[in-house]
Specification:
The complex is a heterotrimer. Chain A is mainly α. Helices cover about 45% and strands about 10% of the residues of chain A. Classes of the chains: A mainly alpha, B mainly alpha, C mainly alpha.
């Protein structure tokens, strides 16, 4: 650390300062308290590297939150990432990498006094950055529209596999919140991957109508009591049933999907109301449903065991696991903060472009371009990690 | 860089309010910081006095419990964010660091001014939250309690603290680059004053730890504003996570408070013992190792917050290691004093107070590092007393020490020595009266942040309040005579203390670019060639014995 | 202040800083694009959740290293700058590691949707 300009001559009025602000021996752009251009450039570079180290720490807490929640609640992440469109994420990654190239090239142009090249490269960086923001805008508006948001606002109209869901709010077409009803079904335990398929029917004073299929995961919390029609605590979103909710309201049934971990080693009874006139929705499952237009009992056998992948896809057709909103809290915080940094970069890039057009940058003075490029590379770096962590979860 | 007349003092170099508000001169910025920080000190102190008066007797004395909660929260927030964290680095560091390096300014003067305005805006937001109902969450904003209640004051306070955090980061960044790039020929890393080593270590912590506070406060702000749910258990969040995030910064933060203080003490002790500092390299290395080790121990604030046993044990063990560099410093300082030619000027009184109070504070920290005793002592007055001993008895005392030490240099005026010495003793006595009883009552079970208490603790509270009043009077008197010295203080010579570091070769007060002529870089902490020319005026003589004092 | 001609013989002994060569820039860019395609393609194949994550992170680290070394010039730059960024990453790793270790331990004892049992009626 004692090489180069770490040591310099102490300053006094003999080294070129006077009270008229005349630059004296200093070239334009070099501030007075620096010895020369190299000194200023090196100091600025060190400063920007400290700033980048600080930025890494600024994002750190979000990465901590991500790692923690993904580690402890993997089912949330496995489910929710289907809501994200990999195509847009990949395009964004490509766009940022191109802008990184043009930023690095811009520095080279500035160093070589290639003013046109500098302006071109900065413009490309700017266009790519704006493109990134535009794609982010598209993604965000889609999510806002579908109510795929954070916290209590997470109330999606569709499951991450694309099926309609019953929501808490009344904001989605074709779905509606309904009351619960218990039904009895004798199910085989230790049969992973099989699915009971029925229809949901709502009977109102004006008649009967069918609601979109809603599949939920059941968590067994105790043996069934025949006397008190049991209500299984069913997955939160979009439909919460707790003990006591079942009030015998006619017309609506609970559909149940037993995942392989819910029932292992236990025997359960669940009541369903099924419409025997309709076939189960997916041909992969055969359900012998001796159900006749009302409360029915049936035994179900899987025709085909689902692979892990298909299980994942099937799960994504169902309602979100409890606390899926956490994924989106993290998603919006991480991409939002990153987007703010991109926006700040856009503003700085515009300012640099103006200065470049005015010819401020020379091979002796190109620090601002270099420092901006370093910042921009860090923004790209962060996205390089965000993309697989958020979009490419398997 | 600043424009103006470089041949007169920086006060005279340019005139008008604009030349202060838009100044790029680190000395003017440091002075403005100083005024802000002293004002905040008075405000925080006023809150403290109100708290102590309320606690004079069990039950309500002057305010009810809701107001009481707000008073101690504001006292904590103002003192931590507005006074102690910026204190030595922003006020004293800004003024002195470039001059100690023989440099004309910091590396990034515009960033420096921006840092100052961030401080002002952050302070305004924090204080504005009082108008909107004030926060009652404790200065630590623990979730889930801080998630509820009225959103506006919490959001304002958090926003203010966020801006203050960035002020701290940019100041630290500036100092780091300045120390790397503006050391003169002849001043390698191990020829720097120890004050600069301390400021360097502090700046490392400021740059690496404070962004975590930034993101934590941002997330908390989002929780309030948008209910994102990261810390909210009803939405699946983890409230203990907030504590991890918060303390990852706030533990290094307390080292940001103490390490620059130690730097001041290193410089002052050697000057007023007229002896080279003992163990220069050890003190330098211990500053940096404190900075690094400080990142490893944040969990010791969470021993009883639901943190796992494994983490508790790991953090407890690591916390013991953090006491080692601090102890090394205390040994070295004591060895510096040994056989020294002690002069009991005001800065020295503060420095000696620091030694005693820091030892007490540091040792009581060990009680809290031990898991078994911490379970008993956590959230009692023992903790309150411990951190006041280190933050106030050491941190603030060192700030006052440095203030008095460098006051002649950056104002060109002497403060009244006798009154100052009396106040310094008053601070020492008042401080001990205030906080020693708190150790006792804390270990007997008096909880902190409680508005009411059992009558068995009343006597301790009363002694504590009397001490606080003595402390308050001493502090307030200092502000008065310091401000008065601008007008009526004796004109200060270049080197009133016979100190050996480079800033004492600059005029008092310095010119616009600090040195009218480039200073000669010489060995520091050597006193043989500094002789007393006249009472209270020391000069450096060269080897041939002819004086080099020149009037500019 | 002679401006050097825009030729490729510019090296860091004559200028203020090292000038990146076009070959290095374009080469890095192409590698990055290829790796992006690779990382998306890797998700199409099911290696199991942990392995997929490991592959994705491995590719991301390679991409990040390329960006840092060549786009950000760290390969040609002062060692201290590398120390800085590594320090930042180490602090991040420390933060993640300790917090994960702690939260791992207390997960089993979390009771979600816990309702406080009602107080029993006061004894007569």
């Amino acid at each position: 650390m004692t090489a180069g300009h770490d040591h310099h001559a102490p300053h006094g009025p003999g080294s070129g300062h006077d009270d008229h602000g005349d630059h004296g021996t200093h070239p334009p752009g070099i501030q007075h308290h620096y010895d020369d251009a190299q000194h200023q450039f090196d100091s600025g570079k060190l400063g920007i590297w400290f700033f980048l180290a600080q930025e890494v720490l600024f994002f750190s807490a979000l990465f901590v939150a991500y790692v923690l929640y993904r580690h402890h609640r993997p089912e949330i992440f496995a489910y929710a990432h289907h809501y994200l469109d990999v195509k847009w994420g990949a395009i964004n990654t490509g766009v940022l990498i191109v802008s990184s190239l043009s930023a690095a090239w811009a520095v080279r142009c500035a160093q070589l006094a290639q003013r046109r090249g500098l302006i071109l490269c900065l413009s490309i960086t700017l266009v790519c950055a704006c493109g990134f923001l535009a794609i982010k805008y598209i993604e965000y508006t889609h999510k806002i529209h579908e109510h795929i948001l954070f916290g209590k606002k997470f109330d999606p109209c569709v499951s991450s596999g694309g099926q309609h869901l019953l929501t808490n709010g009344d904001h989605c077409p074709g779905t509606k919140r309904s009351a619960c009803r218990a039904a009895d079904v004798d199910l085989r335990p230790d049969q992973p991957g099989w699915q009971v398929a029925c229809k949901v029917k709502e009977t109102t004073p004006t008649g009967t109508r069918e609601l979109p299929v809603c599949e939920m995961e059941a968590h067994h919390h105790g043996p069934a009591h025949a006397a008190n029609p049991p209500c299984w605590e069913i997955s939160q979103n979009p439909w919460v049933c707790k003990a006591g909710d079942f009030n015998g309201t006619p017309g609506v049934a609970a559909l149940v999907h037993y995942g392989d971990h819910a029932l292992r080693g236990s025997s359960t009874k669940i009541e369903l109301e099924c419409d025997a006139a309709k076939a189960p929705p997916t041909p992969d499952y055969a359900a012998d449903l001796p159900v006749v237009g009302g409360l029915g009992q049936g035994t179900f056998q899987p025709k085909q065991k689902l692979s892990d992948h298909d299980l994942g896809v099937q799960r994504s057709m169902g309602p979100p696991p409890e606390h899926t909103n956490m994924f989106f809290s993290i998603y919006f915080c991480m991409t939002g903060l990153h987007g703010i940094h991109v926006l700040a970069g856009v503003i700085v890039c515009i300012w640099l472009l103006i200065r470049a057009v005015k010819g401020h940058f020379t091979p002796q003075y190109f620090g601002p371009v270099d420092y901006f490029a370093l910042y921009w590379h860090l923004v790209d770096l962060i996205w390089i990690f965000l993309f697989p962590l958020l979009y490419l979860i398997h | 860089m600043s424009t103006g007349n470089p041949n007169v003092s920086y006060f005279e170099a340019s005139h008008g309010i604009k030349n202060w508000l838009y100044t790029l001169d680190h000395k003017r910025i440091g002075l403005m910081y100083l005024f802000g920080i002293l004002t905040a000190l008075m405000i925080g102190g006023a809150f403290a006095l109100l708290v102590r008066i309320e606690l004079m007797a069990p039950g309500e004395t002057i305010v009810g419990p809701e107001t009481y909660n707000r008073l101690f929260t504001l006292h904590g927030a103002v003192m931590v964010f507005l006074v102690i964290i910026p204190g030595v680095p922003a006020a004293l560091g800004n003024m002195i660091l470039p001059i100690q390096l023989g440099a004309p300014d910091v590396a990034f003067p515009r960033l420096n001014l921006f840092s100052f305005y961030l401080w002002c805006t952050g302070a305004a937001c924090l204080l504005l939250s009082i108008v909107f109902g004030a926060i009652d969450t404790g200065w630590t904003f623990y979730t889930p309690y801080s998630l509820g209640g009225d959103h506006t004051p919490v959001m304002l306070a958090i926003g203010g603290a966020f801006l203050l955090g960035f002020s701290s980061i940019f100041t630290g960044l500036n100092f780091l680059v300045t120390i790397h790039k503006f050391r003169p020929q002849g001043m390698g890393w191990f020829q720097m004053p120890l004050n600069l080593w301390a400021l360097y270590a502090t700046a490392l912590m400021q740059v690496l730890a404070t962004p975590v506070l930034g993101i934590t406060l941002l997330l908390l702000f989002m929780e309030h504003f948008l209910h994102i749910g990261i810390f909210d258990p009803t939405l699946g969040g983890d409230p203990v996570l907030f504590q991890h995030f918060f303390w990852f910064y706030s533990h290094p933060a307390v080292y940001i408070m103490i390490v620059p203080a130690m730097g001041v003490i290193s410089d002052v002790l050697t000057t007023f013992s007229r002896k080279p500092i003992f163990g220069y390299r050890f003190i330098a290395y211990s500053s940096v190792s404190l900075a690094l080790l400080s990142f490893l121990v944040w969990g010791h604030h969470m021993f009883v917050s639901g943190q796992s046993k494994l983490a508790n044990m790991v953090f407890s063990a690591l916390t013991f290691t953090v006491g080692i560099p601090a102890a090394i410093k205390v040994f070295n300082w004591t060895a510096t004093l040994y056989k020294g030619d002690i002069r009991l000027k005001t800065p020295m009184i503060y420095a000696l107070s620091f030694l005693i109070l820091f030892t007490i504070g540091g040792l009581t920290g060990l009680f809290l590092a031990i898991l078994s005793t911490d379970v008993h002592l956590h959230d009692t007055y023992f903790v309150v007393a411990h951190f006041h001993y280190v933050m106030m008895g050491s941190g603030l005392v060192a700030f006052l020490c440095g203030l008095h030490y460098w006051w002649p240099k950056f104002t060109g005026r002497m403060y009244p020595e006798r009154i100052a010495q009396v106040c310094a003793v008053g601070v020492f006595i008042g401080f001990n009266l205030t906080f020693l009883p708190q150790f006792v009552m804390g270990s007997r079970g008096m909880p902190r942040r409680y508005w009411d208490y059992d009558p068995e603790f009343a006597i301790f509270h009363q002694i504590s309040t009397i001490g606080a009043i003595i402390l308050g009077i001493s502090m307030f008197t200092q502000v008065i005579y310091l401000m008065a010295s601008f007008k009526i203080g004796k004109k200060a010579p270049k080197n009133p203390w016979g100190a050996s570091t480079l800033e004492w070769d600059a005029p008092s007060p310095p010119t616009l670019y600090n040195f009218p002529e480039p200073p000669e870089v010489h060995e520091i902490y050597e006193y043989d060639d500094i002789v007393e020319e006249s009472p209270d005026n020391w000069v450096r003589v060269n080897r041939k014995g002819t004086g080099t004092k020149a009037e500019h | 202040m002679a401006n050097p001609a825009a030729d490729k013989h510019h090296d860091d002994h004559h200028g203020i800083a090292h000038v990146a060569s076009l070959k290095v820039l374009l080469g890095t860019w192409i590698l990055l694009m290829i790796l992006t395609v690779a990382t998306v393609g890797a998700t199409k194949v099911d290696f199991g959740p942990s392995t997929n994550l490991a592959i994705a992170m491995f590719i991301a680290v390679i991409k990040a290293t390329l960006v840092v070394l060549f786009f950000m010039h760290l390969f040609y730059d002062k060692l201290f700058h590398t120390v800085l960024i590594v320090a930042g990453v180490l602090a991040l790793a420390l933060f993640v590691g300790f917090t994960l270790m702690d939260s791992n331990q207390y997960q089993e004892s979390i009771q979600w949707n816990y309702t406080v049992p009602a107080d029993p009626p006061p004894a007569p």
